[in-house]
Specification:
64% of the residues lie in helices and 12% in strands.
Length: 300
């Protein structure tokens, strides 16, 4: 192995370790900050316990100086007393500073660590927000161009990778074969299936349909009244678990989205008609979120 290869290998390892350290730096700084808070409290307590001793010693020396002035005025003038009292005050201030210096230094480092962690996370969040906004805008512009070129229905078909599926529909004359289009694998990452695993699901299809419809209507009214709705608001109302993504994405009134909230049920493209008519007991819900709520609010 050549010397250059060894040097490059060491450089890569060091560079990778630096990158890993930067990745975990917010957590590390926050950990240092938490330890610093405890250390500052301990150091401050210790300093306070020693403070009485220093104050008592200073008070004794002050009394000694005053007594000496009273007993030997001819050798210890008023000017000497004033000068010594000033020196005692300066010495007391220096002793107090030295006593609390470790606690102050620890406090400053603690604030610096916590502030550094916050600054790094804020910058990363801003970067992720900008990247998501750019990606979301590009995707929406692409959808718009496809819809203008081929039509809205075709755009939806391409977006959700619709495939034809043959099913049997119960009629008065018996089962009748019918071909419908269903999503293959084109659902968004926010999609959720409303089925028997959901605590709000019931065996009666009409109940499930009315529940979803009423929640969708309520969310739209909330959007009009409050101006914004988080995806977690819809998740919670429908009986789904809240998610970290649902805490930041959603809908904003007068933003850059559709201007309304839709769960993707009452549309032929999502087998909505079979669900509404009671032929299906479960349904995929796909939410037309506008994007990052906080970013959209700042722009609106």
């Amino acid at each position: 192995m050549s010397l250059k290869s060894i040097k490059n290998g060491i450089t890569r390892r060091v560079g990778r370790q630096i990158l890993v350290t930067k990745k975990h730096s917010p957590v590390m700084l926050f950990g240092f900050g938490v330890v610093g808070v405890v250390a500052t409290a301990v150091l401050s307590t210790r300093a306070t316990l020693k403070l009485d001793e220093i104050l008592k010693e200073n008070e004794e020396k002050t009394e000694q100086a005053k007594t000496l002035r009273e007993e030997k005025p001819e050798k210890y003038s008023e000017e000497d007393l004033t000068k010594d009292l000033k020196l005692l005050k300066v010495k007391l201030a220096v002793e107090i500073c030295k006593l609390y210096a470790p606690a102050v230094i620890s406090g400053v480092l603690t604030v610096g660590a916590l502030t550094g962690s916050h600054v790094i996370l804020s910058k990363r969040y801003a970067g992720v927000t900008a990247a998501y906004a750019a990606l979301d805008k590009g995707f929406k512009d692409y959808r718009k161009r496809v819809a203008e070129e081929f039509g809205v229905e075709k755009e939806r078909e391409l977006r959700y990778d619709m495939v034809e599926k043959k099913i049997a529909v119960d009629t008065e004359e018996g089962p009748v074969p019918q071909t419908v289009k269903v999503p293959n694998n084109g659902r968004s990452p926010y999609a959720r299936v409303f089925d028997e695993n959901n605590p709000r699901w019931q065996r009666t299809p009409s109940y499930n349909m009315m529940l979803i419809k009423s929640v969708q209507q309520y969310m739209n009214e909330l959007l009009i009244g409050r101006g914004h709705v988080l995806l977690n608001d819809a998740y919670e109302a429908l009986g789904f678990e809240r998610t970290s993504a649902g805490a930041v994405v959603g809908w904003v009134r007068d933003g850059n989205g559709d201007g309304y909230i839709d769960f993707g049920v009452f549309d032929d493209m999502f087998e909505g008609q079979r669900f509404v008519n009671g032929y299906e007991k479960s349904i995929w819900l796909d939410f037309n979120v506008d994007g990052l709520v906080y970013d959209l609010i700042s722009e609106s």
